[in-house]
Structure formats: structure tokens, C-alpha cells
Amino acid sequence: MNEQQIPYELLAKYLSRQCTLSEREKVNHWLNEDSEHRLLLNKLQQQWEGVRVNASSYVIPDKVEVWGKIQDRIRHKVKQVPLYSRSLLIRISGIAAAIALILGFSLSFLFNSQKDSWQASQFENVIMAPSGQKTQLVLPDGTLVWLNSGSRLSYNYQYSTHDRIVNLEGEAFFDVKKDTQYPFIVKTGTVDVKVHGTAFNVSAYTDEEAIKVALLRGKVSLLSAENQNLLTYLSPDQEAIVSKKSLSCRVESCDAEIEASWHHNLLKFDGDPVEEVWKKLGRWYGVDITLSNVDVSKSYWFTIKTESLTELLEMINKISPIEYKLDGKEVTIRYK
């Protein structure tokens, strides 16, 4: 079905019973064109009924005022509310403003792209873990996912019925439900991670030069997202590091439990380079860390559990003397 030919605004008017006679005829003509059109309308109607039941006492009828408030949010880049699904907001686009206010969601992220990319993201569910926080979710097929700080996971409405594809920006740990019909695929932009049932960690932050995949159990294959060429297979306790630019890949032995320890609310370092340690700590605490006078050959071995940022800094100071300054989310560290 061509997404660009789906008359979403017309269908929204149809579902809200605001169609004129000629518009109803257009809807009926569209339904008769393809059997999938009626299936789509049924899905939209189910979503619409779910929203409409609780909406009556909260809808603001002044549409101009509603859109004005949304535009204000866009201009001021209001912080997004985590753990939301935007599929409802996009599917019923003709009344998106009212639904947005009913559910209390920020729509700023919907209007930052071109029209074509907006249409391509129809029926997409998006889950985000805010900076300094972690999020756990269960996908429709029973797959468990943990999202690390500053990460984003998305999947479309066909998940578990036509495919099991998710898109990841950031870091996530997956405990995949076995399914012999549909492989589970994690898309990171340059690398696809393909499995049937296993547990593994993927780190694909946009500010990192490489994508890292560590396998806890099972077996996974890494493929080029562009041409699906095989990059490597992984066995348990192996980690693949793939360059985003060249797609060069190296496989190393690792302790996958340590690599994925963050999803158990532990952050373990086992001889990690100093710069990588501080980058992970910055994400863990949701702060921006600036280093100076640092010895890049230095490595650390320690574990973070429930320690506050100040407690962590004092602990580091005992290991290797530092001076530090806290200014909101800005942390400046100078090695002595």
C-alpha cells in the first residue's frame, strides 16, 4: 500500500462523522479500490474509538487556539514526555491537535522533518529514555527491551504480524522472544543486527564512531544496512565493533554480562579507558562532563550502584586525584 496515497485527513473526518456527502463518496471509492484499504480503516477506527471514549470532557473545540498552542510548543522546543506512542497522533491527523491536548503529549518532534518523511513515519511507535534515566518495555511479541540513557527505539504497526523490525538510536539490551517465522532485526542506520531468539546488547549512539554489539546468549549476524552483506557472526561472550564510516569490523572476546550490566542498574568498568569511562558516566548521570589534563592511557576498574554523582567524584578522587566543579548539568574535571 502506498502511504502517500492514503487520504488520512479525509479518513479522520469520516471517523469523526464530519464528512460531506461528496467526501463520503470519495471514502467509499477509496475503500473499493483495494481490500487492504478496508483493513486499514478498521484499524484506524479501533484506535479512534479508543481515544474518543475518554476525550469528550477534555477536547477544546477552538481548533485555531489548539494549533496556536502546539506551534508555541514547537517554537520553544518543549521537552518531550517519555514512554509515549505517537501512532494515534499520526493516524488521525485531521484531529491531531485535539488528541495531543487530551493525552498531554508534546508534538514538537512531528513537525521538524519534510512532508515526505512525515508520511513515511505513519503508524510508528516511539519509546525514549530521557538523559540520566533508563526505560524498560515489552514489545508486542513478548520481547523484553531495556533502553539506556538518551536512547530512542521505534517500530511500526506491522510489528509481529508482518515483521519484527525495530530502529535504535543509542543503547539497548534485548531479550528476544523466539519466533521461527519472523527474525528479529535491530536497525541502527549503518548496521542491521539479525536474530531469531537471543539476548544481546547494542550500543549505537549518534555521537560514537562505532557500533558495538555484545552477545550474551544465542547467535546473531551483523549485516550492512545498505546492501545486506554479511559483516560477521557472533557467539556468546563476543563483541563486534563496527566502524560507521568504513564498516570495518573486528570481533573481540568480552564479558557480555559486564557490557550489559547497566540494564541491571549496575555500571561496571573492567579496565576501561578513562575517556570511555567518563562518557558512560555522563550518560549514566545525565550530565555533560568536560575533562582536562587527563592521561589517556589511564584505565579504571570499579562498579557503580546507587552512588550519587558527588559520591562518585569523591570515589574517583581517591583512586586518582582530581578537581571537579558542578554547575547544574555541567561537570568540569581536572586531573591533578
From TrEMBL:
Stretches assigned to coiled coil: none
NADP among keywords: no
Residue ranges of domain FecR protein in the record: 128-220
Protein FecR C-terminal domain sequence ranges: 267-333
Keyword hit for NADP: no
Residues that span the membrane, as ranges: 88-111
Keywords for this protein: Membrane, Transmembrane, Transmembrane helix
Pfam families the UniProt entry points to: FecR, FecR_C
This protein's name: Ferric-dicitrate binding protein FerR (Iron transport regulator)
Organism, as annotated: Parabacteroides faecis
